[in-house]
Amino acid sequence: MARKRIGELLVDKGLMTREQVETALKESQRRGELIGKTMIRLGLVSGEQLLQVLAEQLGIAFYPNLGQLLVSKGLASPQQMEAALRESQRRGEILGKTILRMGVVAEEQFLQVLAEQLGITFAPSLKEVQVADQLIKVVPARFVLHYKFMPLELKGTVMKVAVSDPMAVWVTEDLRLNLGYDIERVLAPEKEIQAAIRRYYGVGSETVEQILTRDVAGREAREAQDLAKVEEIEDVTRSADDASVIKLVNQLLSEAVTSRASDVHIEPFRERVRVRYRIDGILYDMHMPDEMRYLHSAIVSRIKIVSKLNVVERRLPQDGRAIIKIQEQQVDLRISIIPGLYGENVVIRILPVELLLTLEDLGFLPSELKMLQALMQQPHGVVFVTGPTGSGKTTTLYACLSVLNKEAVKVVTIEDPIEYELGGIMQFQVKPEIGLTFAAALRSILRHDPDIVMVGEVRDLETAELAIRTALTGHLIFSTLHTNDAASGATRLLNIGIEPYLIASSVNAFISQRLVRVICPECKTERQDRDLLPEPFRHAAVSYGKGCDACKSIGYRGRTAIHEIILLAPEIQELILNKASAAQIRQRAKALGFRTLFDAGVEKVHMGITTPEEVLRVTEPEALVSAQPVS
Question: What is the arithmetic mean of pLDDT over 12-38?
Answer without folding.
Answer: 82
